Amino acid sequence: MVGDEFWLITQPDHARLAAELLGHFGNGAFSNAYVNDDLRGATALHDDGWAAHDAAPTVNSIGSPLDVFEPSPDVVLPLWRASASAAQEHSAAAGLLVSCHVLTLSAYLASREQTTHISADPAVMLTRFALNKFQHYEFERQETLRRILGLRTDWPTTLGLAENCPDPAEQLLTARFRLLQAMDLLSLALCCTKPPGDRTGPLHSTPAAPATSIQFHLQSQRTIALGPWPFAEKRLELSVPYRAVPARRYADDADLRAVYDAAPQRPLRVSVVSA
To answer: Which of 45, 96, 132, 270 is least enclosed, having the fewest CB within 10 Å?
Structure first.
């Protein structure tokens, strides 16, 4: 929320912003030698499954626009699967990267949904079953894509990645995935009123190099400062489309959609600077 308005940014537009950040990645401290068309495609498409939902936004239990971090499994699992499928249409490698991404999200969701006791509640059981089905589907997708790409299927994986594997191809996949995650997080920090964290996961200046995290914080609502600095330019000036709707309680989805559809699309101008 900004003032007396909700500024609504679609997930596909957030993903395009992440891809734009990726396009500037690389300098003396961080190599962009492993950035390729597959990684660019995966980054740009990693939330494309949200397109239909975000074109017709929904409300949460208190009548506010549903936030990306709020959806229940029955809402979000089909969107995640569609995102991986959209990336797979771009290329097998992009599909594998986004499958790893949504599988990681599902692991977080599973931990959030987990209870401390075994529940016989049918709704809880159905949620767990849906999560299990989703994860099994993505594991099977990943094995198929790994065979297409000539990657290993004889090494144990964690959420799709062969951790600590000496194979250079596996190290490259991990490095590309970590970079996708980092650009995703930095884009979310620029799009959200409150950033979902203050540092990226481990990033590799080269696939085999020691990992480095990038720390970041909001200097203002539209400026994020980060370090160490990973981009070619000394400062980035970017924009992402948004629509502003009044910050009020909406009676139902139709109420929100009528206001959202009438709202003009505007550019949100954001800055990325060195801390």
So the answer is: 132
